[in-house]
Design brief:
The chain has seven helices and six strands; from the N terminus they run H-H-H-E-H-H-E-H-E-E-E-E-H. The protein is of the alpha+beta class and 173 residues long.
């Protein structure tokens, strides 16, 4: 009987020790997997002057090709009141947010004194105001430049105009 208790105790200790290392083993395995070597596009929730906009666009193109979506480059900054109003508009209109997310990969590109992202933005037409939207196809080719002032209504954005914009410039499948 003593030997069975001793054997069970050893077994339980072994299980406890092994399970305590599982998170470490899993993290190492995941970091070495092919999944982690494929950089996946992660949506951005703000305009970060420290982000690499060129790399963000490359990842967005890869994701757009994979998902057969177009890309919206949303150019603005944390300083931009209308950029925050646009964010609020999408948060308050989940149906329109779903329409955008089902058809586009959205990339926020910072424009501020700290980082004007001149290199990437020099590839596109003049921006008359912020936020500004550039619509690209899944290969990264510019298909439309949108001044967002015409999408405004009062102190927000016009539902019908935004829906129309998203439908008009979405991917053709």
């Amino acid at each position: 009987m003593k030997s069975q208790v001793k054997h069970r105790t050893k077994f339980l200790v072994t299980i406890v020790v092994l399970t305590s290392f599982l998170p470490i083993i899993s993290a190492v395995a995941l970091s070495n997997s092919s999944y982690s070597s494929q950089k996946k596009h992660l949506p951005m929730s703000d305009y970060d002057p420290h982000r690499d906009a060129t790399q963000d666009l490359k990842q967005a193109i890869s994701e757009a090709r994979r998902t057969k979506k177009n890309i919206i480059l949303e150019v603005g900054g944390q300083w931009c009141v209308w950029c925050h109003i646009m964010d609020q508009f999408f948060q308050q209109n989940p149906d329109i947010l779903r329409l955008r997310e089902s058809n586009y990969i959205t990339v926020k590109i910072n424009f501020s004194p700290e980082n004007e992202n001149k290199e990437i933005l020099s590839q596109y037409p003049h921006i008359p105001g912020y936020p500004h939207l550039f619509v690209l196809d899944s290969s990264g080719k510019l298909i439309h430049s949108q001044f967002t002032g015409v999408l405004e209504k009062g102190m927000s954005y016009d539902r019908e105009k935004v829906i129309s914009f998203l439908k008009k410039w979405g991917p053709t499948q």
